[in-house]
Amino acid sequence: MGLMDNLKQLGDLKKMRDQAMEIQKKLAGIQITVEHKGVIVIMTADQKVVSISGEQNFEKITEAVNEALKQSQKVAADEMKPMMGGLGIPGM
Fold first, then answer.
1. pTM for this structure?
2. pLDDT tens digits along 72-91
3. Separation between Cα atoms, residue 69 and residue 36, nearest integer Å
4. For residues 76 and 33, what is the distance between their CA atoms, to the nearest angstrom?
């Protein structure tokens, strides 16, 4: 492997890092609202809880947060698909 190959790999890694940072910013700006059994959870697609309101039952809150997490993971996976391209990573 020559110097040019190493430089190309570094360039490819920088490009992937830049794409990942761009996706992270985009995910932070996407809000997901889930209403589940009287609990409303607002979460960003990078899985930060913005607010929880409604029913004050711990079990219901837990279920609503878990549902919001599941939906945020789907959004994140969809946003990352173009970056992953043909890498063939299972589950992506």
1. 0.71
2. 999 988 888 877 664 545 55
3. 13
4. 15
